Batch of 3 targets.
Target 1
Amino acid sequence: MQAAELYEQEIKQSEVARRLRVSVKSAYHWQQLWRDGGRGALASRGPSGSRCRLSPRCLEELAGYLEEGPAEHGWVEDQVWTAARVATLIGRKFHVSYSVSGATRLMHRLGFSPQVPARRVAERDEQAVTARREATWAEVKEPGRRAEVTSASRTKPGSPADRPKDVPGAGAAAPRS
């Protein structure tokens, strides 16, 4: 409603935009709405986006299902709620289709966060994997280069300390600091 008050005072759109911290284009649009429909045309229409397709009762039920855990609903591999699993659960229990991103937003709204499951075989032997990794790494690891002074330039030596002392002009110029 601040915009309506400013328009009633005949303040320019650029000044309205500056004061309300919006784009000039928005200020022009709002002024057009105000001219056509008055203050009521500038009233908020609520949050944008689609409305939640689950009723408050269904949301409470969903929170209860999430509290029970994934194993209770057929995912026994690990105890993690992924967004894809929650979208599937919503479809099974409430016959409502949710995308993975929509399920993520819904989970956050209910105070949950989607987890990413570890993609490992249940029969994995961690000790054998570690031993194999160490043995293989020792075979493929090459010894590193010897540490020495190097230079990126082909014409300049790496360091004054590495220059030969017996060449003409070696002691003439003091090193720069």
Target 2
Amino acid sequence: MSLYDVDMERVRRRNPWRWFLLHPRADYVWAVLAVWVWLGLSALLRQPLMLEGVGEAARSTLFQTLAGLSGATAGLTLTSVSMLINVLGKKAPPGQRALPLERLTPDHRKQIGDVFLAAIPGLGLLVVATLSTIVLEGDGDTGLWIPEAVVFVLTFASVQALLRVAWALRRLMAIATAG
């Protein structure tokens, strides 16, 4: 049996993975840790911090791309939430057997919804941070490492949140197609 009381072919318990799935707020801790490691290695190797040494055109292109991708992904995730509400609220007609998704407990429905809702603020903040970084850096020859570090923290945290969303979608597909 799986987490959602639906038989799965390959069920393996991975406690660290499960912890990751159930603690979306830890994304920011892991992201800050990754950026601190990056900054530490840069300082230790006497390299420019973050993207300070990268040319203005390349930095601008990177941040514009990140802003576009995060905005589009935030919109897609928000649309998925409305579809998710519709799917999880659907009931079988009277007299027919229950749909597989009806077997989810309210706690499991809340967990799935929380996975999607936890991704949206980080993606929205990433759009704002990337656009702000573009404006703050302007046409300067060198970048500003502090706004760049904020962008990368939000990027790393958003990637983790999107991994969690992909997991939730995979689980929902497995449950919906279960006999």
Target 3
Amino acid sequence: MIRIVTAARLERLEADASAARGWARQVSGAANEAFGRHVRELFAVTNRAERAETTTSEVGVILARALEELSAAQQELLLRDIEMRRLRAELEGESLEGRTLTVLLHHGEPHTIYASREDAHADTATHGMPTDHVWKRCDERPAAEFKWRCEAFIYNPASNGFRRAQMPVPKPIEGAA
């Protein structure tokens, strides 16, 4: 089959081809633009995922540390509870009559109660008192005049409580007989 192509037909075909090339360029440009948006979006999503993964691992480390600290605190509380029960059982098993306690006073205010004077002296070392400090018997000055002072208390069964082991010497009132 032979087909005769006229100049008008060739012009139309060239115009159609030119239009098709223009359309192809537009579609290719739109496709490139869409691909660029897709790549940028993919990059952003990947970046967010990496940051989330990093944050998750950091939170995991913080949580693990917190759980370790919680476990240590629980163990310490358990040991303190055991020690308190032991001390209670020890106190309940013994008679308190004649037993002494030492109150550590800081500038005249009660600081802590100890079972022995040695424990009170040792505790002052944790508060800045030299460990080789020589403790002297306190005179009659008020307790507030001393930075650290130990006062002994003896259990008094008559009053079901403790009283000072060394009562201050009563001062005579002037003019009294």
